[in-house]
Amino acid sequence: MTNMRERLLDPSTPTGVGLGLRAEFMADVQQGLANDRVAFFEVSPENYMNRGGRVVRMFEDIAARHRLITHGLMMSLGSIEPFSDVYFKDLRGFLARHGSSWHSDHLCFSTEQGAVLHDLLPLPLDEVTATRVAGRIREAQDRLERPLAIENISYYLPMGRPQMSEAAFMTMVCEQADCGLLLDVNNVYVNSKNFGFDVREMVAGYPLERVIQLHVAGHTHWDRFDMFLDDHGATAEPTVHELLAWVVERTGPVPVLLERDKKIPPLAELLDEVTALQSTYDQALIRRGGAGHEPGVASVG
Amino acid sequence: MSVEPDQIRSALGQVVRDRARHDRVVADPHAELTALGLDEAARAGMLACGSQRLLAYHHMVHGRLFKTVRGFLGGAAGRLGDDRLRADLDAWIADPGPQTVYLRDIPAQFLSWARPGWDADPSLPPWLGELAAHQVSIRTIRNDPREVGPQTEVGIELERPIACNATVELVRYRWAVHRLPTKLGPDAEPEPTPEGQAVIAYRHADDQPRFVDIKPRSAHMLELLIAGKTLREALFGACEATGETLDDEILGVTAVTLADLIDRHVLLGGLA
């Protein structure tokens, strides 16, 4: 069985807890208020590609002083339309300057008959779709000339009658595409709340040997539609800490990202949450060491 | 024979895009999913948690795009009203919909589709489309990928082109929408633009978008300078366009104008 971490994580890979870079606190980061508080910043290339002005200059300044991991939003791996040559050209250019040893995007579709819908829409969980999407991921990896990690999404709707679980679907896709897994434990948790399955059992079903990065976040209840929404609008719940720890005990050191996109508090509060997650992460690694697991890639974070 | 997975994916996509399909799902979800080609098993799966989950995706997509467009349109969106903006946006998302992966570029795409309808609508102020375009241009200029560039510190010469700030565009508004306050009062109306006058729209070296009125002859001259003409060509071309004869007074005014444009970082100086 292939351990993707041995292939993709190297001594320059930041491990430990990082933070998603957002416009709301870029100026604070530029002023050094996050120095030595985060292992890395995760950035979405689409926020800076094909753009100039103050925001990009701030980003370039931050990029020069912090380690970055890239995470895309708009590849639409599950769509049936051909990939955009222009998008991949711009992305390749961005990754050449700011990319790490892999790039990531979501296992979803975002376009419909040419329209770009700017959301992460779920795919039918079946073998035909898995095979088709795996082919798209291989093509994307070839176009980018670097490996991809695929993130599991939160979803609110069964796409027809599922043939398999989300974990089995992800496993099939990752195996066929030979790609990495960006495991978002909050997304699995949100799905478990919306669909009533056992979250620990589901997380355990994901191909953990392919995990090269984790995402954690909080979520809220959308009263209008009576469902839990993965809006990254709250602090991560204790269950998310537990899931993070459970996975890290099995993977060893990996980059872990805290996402916050709604109701963004002052940077100091976010950094306190990073510290709390780092504590969870560190304790998990200690338990992993005590349990005699094989050592993972050395942490430099 | 079961439904192809792509048909299920497409069904969600169509309900997300099309307000009419959304409304038909509200009325009779099974009938609408049948119309979208889904068989009983696929319909049962998709509606297992209730049709609300299907509708939620429609609202997430439309809500995000509405918020983005309304924010970019500023006072123009306020004057248009949320109901009209939402209806137009719904129609646009259904067909043709956004064609860009950059969320920041969506308001301009939407506006290029919606503006002909607004300009032709007698129930709306005739300047509303122009104000909307101006509001969107503020963000476009701010995010323009072209570099502003530093001053060249080289003197300008009559027989050579002049270096221009790459973000400079000459805009010819029919109304002085750029002079309206950010918080648009209910009675606010822009003045008509004087004949031939234009507006220089650009990003300054301090990263802020700027809008500067420029008189007809100078506007023609700047247009030609942006096109790469020499100062002599630009000057004579501008006089030809305005039907004037170049004289000492025009030369004097031009010298002051060029100095002002360099000072404002519209022009960057002589080419090295």
Automatic annotation (TrEMBL), chain A:
Protein name: Uncharacterized protein
Classification via Pfam families: MbnB_TglH_ChrH
Gene3D superfamilies in the record: Divalent-metal-dependent TIM barrel enzymes
Lineage of producing organism: Bacteria, Pseudomonadati, Myxococcota, Polyangia, Nannocystales
PANTHER family associated with the record: UPF0276 PROTEIN HI_1600
UniProtKB/TrEMBL annotation, chain B:
Domain NGO1945-like C-terminal intervals: 166-262
InterPro entries (UniProt xref): NGO1945-like_C
Gene3D superfamilies documented for this protein: 3.90.930.50
Pfam families, per database record: NGO1945_C (PF22106)
Record's protein name: NGO1945-like C-terminal domain-containing protein
